[in-house]
Amino acid sequence: MIAADDARVAAERAARASYGRILAIIAAATRDLALAEDSLADAFEKALRTWPEAGIPDNPEGWLVTVARNRLRDLLRSPAVRDAAPLLEGVLEADERDAATIVAGRDRIPDKRLELLFACAHPAIDPGIRTPLMLQVVLGFDATQIARAFGVEPATMAQRLVRAKRRIRDAGIPFAIPTRQDMPGRRDAVLEAVYGAYAIDWLDSPMDSDPVRDSIADETRWLAVLLASLLETEAESWGLAALLTFAQSRAPARAARPWPPLDEQDPATWDLELIAEGRMLLRRASALGEPLGRFQLEAAIQAVHCDRARTGTLDAETLVTLYRGLVAIAPTAGARAALAAAEARVR
Amino acid sequence: MRYALLLHYPEMSADELGPEALAEGMREFDEYAKALDAAGVLRSAEVLQPSTATTTVRGGEPLRIQDGPYADTKEQLGGTFVIDVDDLDAAIGWAGKAPSVSWGAVEIRPVGTRFVDGAWTGFDYR
Predict the structure, then answer these.
(1) Which of A27, A178, A222, B120 pairs with B60 at a CA distance of 20 to 30 A?
(2) Burial group, residue A288, by CB count within 10 angstroms (0-12, 13-18, 19+)
């Protein structure tokens, strides 16, 4: 017998590290995220109940997948959904062999998170709810936390999330990697939605240091890196991962209120390991040899700022060049203003 | 999944179209239906008469019967194709190939249930 605390720690660790991974697998068969979430919640609850007595299984994730799948099967047989179930049963059967391997622990759990991300950012989903949906189903944040980050009422956010999930199920939005032909547009939608999680208007937040927002920023950077590694050969996804990593390297400097402007921040407060990782990610993007996109340019601009930690000076000339490039491909008001500021600094 | 592709477009009479455009349109719809059929996804295809031929009935005592369409809009429902495909992406693919998509819109609506062999098929009303 082990302490309940150990079981709780093991279950929580599994929850944080693999929530999206497990949910993606359970939901793929039915495309019903709400039902999959209920099943997974039951599995986590059962883990907390039984692990202290029986011990933590060798393959906790496999255990959770199996228990959640069985629960899903029970829910599908319940009167409320039984009529629609015959179709779904067939789909579930197809996963059986897959499940057996996972339980035996012979194989790693297949990663279907990329498919899940593409479902969340599908063109048939309202762009405004794509980011919250990802935060919930891939990273496991609950509706209250997401509502807080977006500054809306929890009930409103919960309702919008429920509606989006119902839409995925009812409209038949697939959990699939888009075809090569559809990839550019669909990839951009996923990148935008991930970027959206990071760019939530906390820059202007009147709140003092907020653990929920800090944690979302941190997890979103991790998600961007995951997305890049799953897409592998999409330069802009590496660019986004680099951008968020550089931005996150300066998180310690943002603890002060109000935030000091970038130029006035003390580089000694920045996280040098994250800066090094950002450089590595950006190199990975440029190694693919594609024309520079918006995220790579923004990451390069961040890299120049972060380089102040190494050289002690800001390379203003390079900044101007990069901002000109950014304005050329993404002429937003923000980019234009930043270019003007950079030019003023050189003169 | 079954989807109804609802084709909406501005109505034009045969005269307004001219014989060539009319023949071209019919040829395109013929190709489209045959492509759906060859792919094994076509369940039904109906092209409707113009809305000038439509009659709308509303409940009450007595029934209110009125000439003309339910909603008098610039674009009218002109035809329906019911297809059976894996998912929304497949349905979007077929919708994008409908000839009328270049001069109108195609609405993709999942089928909820249908009446087959004397009974309704399972209906997911969650």
Answers:
(1) B120
(2) middle
Q: Looking at the complex, report in whole angstroms how far the Cα of residue B44 sits from the nearest Cα belonging to chain A.
A: 20
For residue A78, which residues of chain B lie inside 8 Å, CB to CB?
none
Residue B60 lies in a domain: yes
What is the per-residue pLDDT across B52-103, written as a single tens digit (0 to 9) for each?
Answer: 899 999 988 889 888 888 888 889 999 999 999 999 999 999 999 999 999 9
Q: How many domains does chain B have?
A: 1
How far is it, in rounded angstroms, from Cα A110 to Cα A89? 21
Give alpha helix (H) positions in A250-315. 272-287, 294-306, 308-311
Complex confidence, ipTM: 0.84
We report the CATH number of the domain holding residue B16 as: 3.30.70.1060
What is the reported pTM?
Answer: 0.84
- The shortest CB-CB distance from A83 to any of B91, B92, B122 is to B122
Which one, of A209, A284, A190, A188, lies nearest residue A245 by Cα?
A284
Which structural domain, as residue segments, surrounds residue B57?
A: 2-112
Tell me, yes or no, whether B93 lies in a domain.
yes
A189 contacts in B (CB within 8 Å)? none
Q: Per-residue pLDDT averaged across A135-164, rounded?
A: 92
B42 within a domain of the structure (yes/no)? yes
Of the listed ranges A158-162, A245-249, A258-262, B60-64, the least confidently predicted one is A258-262
